[in-house]
Amino acid sequence: MIGASKAGDDHCMSFLKVLTGFVPWIVFTLAASRLGAGAVGVACLLALVVAVGLIIRSVRHGESPKLLEVVAAVVFLVLGVVAFAVPASDAFLAGYGRALAAVILAVTIFATLPVMPFTEQYARESVPREFWTSPRFRAINRRISAVWGAAIAVMAVSHVVAGALDTPGSGGGVLSRPVDLVFNWVVPGLLIWAAVAFTQKAQAGAKAEQQAHANGAHEATARG
Length: 224
Fold this sequence. Notes:
Blueprint: H1 15-20, H2 23-34, H3 40-60, H4 67-85, H5 90-111, H6 118-124, H7 135-165, H8 178-223
Helix pairs in contact: 2-3, 2-5, 3-4, 4-5, 5-7, 6-7, 7-8
């Protein structure tokens, strides 16, 4: 979970690092929707550069590359190659590239839940090794990762709706494209907010449970 890295907090992780892992996906979404026609390849290249930069940063700090960073690098490398090699694919990728990227990310998050929930990578960096195999530690990270995976899966559906209904090139800025505004920005933003809120609630609940357990143990010792 998220919070300070104390020995007793067997579920802590850096929340900022988790959000940083989504930066390549945000960069792609921004660039793909704002650079105009024929810019999907450039958007993929920008996202790829950011993802590789995050991987290099992790390695230089002695940390393992994160799932979000590696998947982003692979996805945007492949999409970029397709966009540059097959110019005719640009229209499809402009409309549905964000949905495709979100689907791949959601599937990856769910597929890794039984083995290594993606949030567990971040938690291990601030949690003592002896807690890594505890059922509580694994269960908390599975729940949080599953909620993020569900949010991203719904986000993919929202991007599909935007791709099917949006009319790019109408001019007048983002307000002239309400479908794009709602389904590519408002809905994803609300989903991220909901995932963050769940994560914070899970953090508070786990800390309260841990504190209650510690207080009970202290009282039992005092009575003894």
